[in-house]
């Protein structure tokens, strides 16, 4: 009888050991992900704020759960401002109260979008204002998500991996679209004044943001889009079908914009 009890207990003990091993294997990726995020707290916080920006923008455009759409608009810009502040902390960690430091600070793309969030956070809700923060948040958050998937295993979440890969293939086109959106937001801020939805100060503040984007050392897309728009405008203006008054108006506008364009510095 004792032998029979021992034989019955051995399979039960083996089964318990196997269950414990399976549970340990099941929890191991989660523990590794938590450890990875704990070791890179700022990057994990950036991922969280970017995801919050993406979700808030979606809820502003598609009010699935109802609520005040303006609150989602503000949340998206606030979380983008938090993302930009964290990135500035990474890029320029040592604060100094002098002219050189602030000159270096405003060369950073993160400072540009911190300024951008402050411009639009109290304005009338504009979908165009959320497009760049949504797309930047999406591009950067999927890059971090891919790192988390790699920790989980090379074959984990294949559907999500395929979506991330397709999105990253379109990164250059997305960045060009963001630059185009930034440019056409300038006349939109002027139109908002005449519609009674914007302040007189907004176009001047946004011009400063756009000039910072044009002079950016790390983002050449704004300059490239301005050049392409100029070439396109000149091409249509030189066509025989274009009226003379319109041709003169286009060339005067091009000359005026060229005078407003800031000096650029080479990328480092």
UniProtKB/TrEMBL annotation:
Annotated segments matching region Disordered: 1-28
Main location group: membrane
Keywords assigned: Membrane, Transmembrane, Transmembrane helix
InterPro entries, per the entry: PER33/POM33_regulator (IPR051645), TMEM33/Pom33 (IPR005344)
Compositionally biased region (Low complexity): 7-28
GO biological process: endoplasmic reticulum tubular network organization; membrane organization
Membrane protein topology class: Multi-pass membrane protein
Residue stretches spanning the membrane: 44-65, 113-139, 183-207
Localization of this protein: Membrane
GO cellular component: endoplasmic reticulum; membrane
Family annotation (Pfam families): TMEM33_Pom33
Family: Belongs to the PER33/POM33 family.
Name of this protein: Uncharacterized protein
């Amino acid at each position: 009888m004792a032998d029979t009890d021992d034989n019955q207990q051995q399979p039960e003990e083996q089964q318990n050991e196997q269950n414990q091993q399976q549970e340990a294997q099941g929890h191991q990726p989660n523990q590794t992900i938590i450890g990875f995020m704990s070791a890179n707290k700022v990057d994990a916080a950036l991922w969280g704020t970017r995801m919050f920006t993406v979700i808030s923008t979606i809820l502003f455009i598609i009010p699935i759960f109802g609520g005040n759409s303006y609150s989602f608009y503000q949340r998206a810009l606030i979380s983008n401002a938090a993302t930009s502040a964290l990135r500035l902390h990474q890029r320029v960690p040592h604060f100094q109260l002098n002219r050189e430091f602030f000159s270096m600070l405003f060369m950073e793309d993160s400072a540009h979008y911190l300024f951008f969030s402050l411009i639009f956070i109290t304005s009338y809700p504009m979908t165009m204002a959320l497009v760049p923060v949504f797309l930047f948040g999406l591009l950067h958050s999927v890059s971090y998500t891919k790192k988390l998937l790699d920790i989980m295993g090379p074959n984990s979440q294949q559907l999500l991996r395929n979506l991330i890969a397709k999105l990253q293939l379109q990164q250059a086109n997305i960045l060009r679209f963001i630059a185009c959106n930034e440019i056409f937001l300038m006349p939109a801020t002027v139109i908002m004044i005449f519609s009674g939805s914007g302040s007189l100060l907004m176009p001047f503040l946004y011009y400063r943001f756009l000039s910072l984007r044009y002079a950016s050392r790390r983002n050449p897309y704004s300059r490239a889009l301005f050049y392409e728009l100029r070439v396109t405008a000149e091409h249509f203006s030189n066509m025989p079908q274009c009226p003379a008054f319109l041709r003169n108006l286009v060339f005067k506008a091009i000359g005026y914009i060229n005078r407003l364009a800031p000096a650029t510095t080479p990328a480092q």
